[in-house]
């Protein structure tokens, strides 16, 4: 969450930045935070004064008793008792004020960096790079029209999946519901191959692999900002008050909740494979058909904890890592700098990676790589001890998908169709043991 220092000392900048993110109640939300903080500070001042007064009277009691002034001592005791009652009231009010302030701060999104482009929606995102030479970089997505030629004879991945008996969407709907497919034979092995490849590449880039829990408590959801913003999109286990993770970002980043790190240990780099669970696949049509949007899918996540001074460099390194994966998978891709209105609740800056889906003639998002500045760290109380002066400072947190499997699989299937089957990218052949995805599932 935003710090009170940001809100109270840079009020107008914060309001303008929130408006850039199309947060409709920017000024009202900021002013309410200032008002709640004022109540908290005034209550704290009264509490401090009451405690000091109580301490003064308590010190007098002993002296009065020694002087034989019993009546005066009893009066002092009565004053102390009154002050104790007032102290209890003020402590309760103080706790309520802090809770109200924190609950309100949780509802205010992060502010975007100054160089994040203006814009209200995905059409205003800016293309910063593509491996398609004929494409013009630097234009907004709304004006981006050049894509690879579609021959018209290519099958979409859901038809290929049925043709080669690789993915059974109907069986998944029978056993669980829509958005929970079965992966069969070679496709099941191909899923494992992708997971292993992504994890190996992350390890080569210096990320320490962890295998996190797939459920988290409420504090973890609040720590990374999924709660309260995306509560309706998370699967909640009511009996135990636990949440199925929407991404490994949540448990991995929460490793560092309420932790003070040493500056010499930064940046910290972690990666994890996990299933991801999201209650977001409710629409119909080609945009959500097949693997385009699922309730459950696999993903490898990379996470960094860094200093404010180095986090921008870490962000660049993470972007280069994800781009390298797409290059090795031989996929047509583009990188978008998201405009303010299309950014997530928690990000300060975010780049999306999209791959071109030939048979669908559209771009599919496969990764978001974000720098959250100190926003998550403030919620997590994730700090580091600065070497120069030993002061504790909020860290910066970053994360990215490296990569999410479903749309990568869809793009590989649709872009690599041959008469022999679906060609497997060369880099994955050693991992899966075959060169084509076809109906020979017992190969």
Structure commentary:
The protein has 443 residues and is an alpha+beta fold. Helix 3 runs antiparallel to helix 4. The chain is elongated and about 105 Å long. The model has no long low-confidence stretch (mean pLDDT 92).
Tally of DSSP β-strands: 19
- Per DSSP, the total helix count is 13
Structure classification: alpha+beta
Termini, distance in Å? 52 Å
Principal-axis shape: elongated
Report the mean per-residue pLDDT as an integer: 92
The low-confidence runs, each spanning 5 or more residues with pLDDT under 50, are none
Strand fraction equals 15-25%
The oligomerization state is: single chain
Q: Widest sheet: strand order?
A: 1-11-12-13-16-10-9-4
Q: Radius of gyration over alpha carbons?
A: 27 Å
Main β-sheet: number of strands, strand sense, barrel status?
A: 8 strands, mixed
Helix coverage percent: 40-55%
Q: How do you describe this structure in short?
A:
The protein has 443 residues and is α+β, with helices and mostly antiparallel strands. It has helices at 4-9, 11-20, 26-66, 70-106, 157-163, 169-175, 186-204, 218-224, 249-253, 311-328, 375-380, 405-415, 429-432, and strands at 126-130, 167-168, 182-183, 208-209, 215-216, 236-237, 242-244, 260-262, 268-277, 296-306, 333-337, 349-357, 362-371, 383-385, 392-394, 396-404, 417-418, 421-423, 436-437. β14 (383-385) and β15 (392-394) form a beta hairpin.
């Amino acid at each position: 969450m935003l710090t009170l220092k940001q809100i109270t000392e840079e009020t107008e900048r914060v309001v303008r930045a929130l408006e850039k993110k199309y947060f409709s109640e920017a000024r009202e939300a900021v002013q309410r935070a200032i008002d709640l903080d004022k109540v908290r500070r005034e209550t704290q001042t009264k509490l401090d004064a009451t405690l000091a007064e109580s301490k003064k009277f308590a010190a007098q009691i002993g002296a009065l008793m020694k002087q034989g002034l019993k009546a005066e001592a009893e009066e002092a005791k009565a004053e102390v008792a009154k002050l104790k009652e007032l102290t209890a009231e003020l402590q309760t009010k103080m706790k309520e004020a802090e809770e109200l302030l924190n609950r309100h701060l949780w509802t205010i999104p992060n502010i975007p960096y100054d160089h994040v482009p203006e814009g209200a929606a995905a059409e205003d995102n800016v293309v910063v790079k593509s491996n398609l030479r004929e494409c013009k970089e630097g234009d907004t997505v709304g004006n981006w029209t050049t894509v690879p030629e579609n021959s018209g004879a290519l099958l979409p991945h859901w038809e290929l999946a049925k043709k080669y008996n690789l993915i059974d969407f109907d069986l998944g709907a029978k056993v669980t519901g829509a958005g929970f497919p079965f992966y069969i034979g070679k496709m099941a092995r191909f899923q494992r191959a992708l997971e292993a490849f992504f994890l190996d590449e992350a390890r080569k880039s210096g990320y320490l692999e962890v295998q996190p829990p797939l459920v988290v408590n409420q504090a973890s959801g609040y720590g990374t900002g999924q709660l309260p913003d995306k509560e309706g999109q998370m699967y909640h286990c009511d009996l135990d008050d636990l949440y199925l993770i929407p991404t490994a970002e949540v448990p991995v980043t929460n490793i560092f909740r309420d932790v003070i790190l040493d500056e010499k240990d930064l940046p910290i780099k972690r990666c994890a494979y996990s299933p991801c669970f999201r209650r977001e696949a409710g629409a119909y049509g080609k945009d959500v058909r097949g693997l385009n949007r699922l309730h459950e899918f696999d993903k490898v996540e990379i996470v960094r904890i860094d200093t404010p001074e180095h986090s921008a460099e870490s962000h660049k390194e993470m972007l280069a890592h994800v781009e390298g994966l797409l290059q090795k998978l031989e996929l047509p891709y583009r990188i978008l700098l998201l405009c303010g209105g299309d950014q997530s609740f928690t990000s300060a800056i975010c780049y999306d990676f999209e791959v071109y889906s030939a048979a669908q003639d559209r771009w599919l998002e496969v990764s978001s790589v974000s720098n959250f500045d100190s926003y998550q760290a403030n919620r997590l109380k994730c700090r580091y001890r600065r070497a120069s002066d030993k002061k504790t400072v909020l860290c910066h947190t970053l994360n990215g998908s490296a990569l999410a499997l479903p749309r990568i699989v869809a793009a590989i299937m649709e872009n690599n169709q041959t008469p022999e089957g679906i060609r497997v990218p060369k880099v994955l052949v050693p991992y899966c043991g075959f060169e084509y995805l076809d109906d020979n599932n017992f190969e």
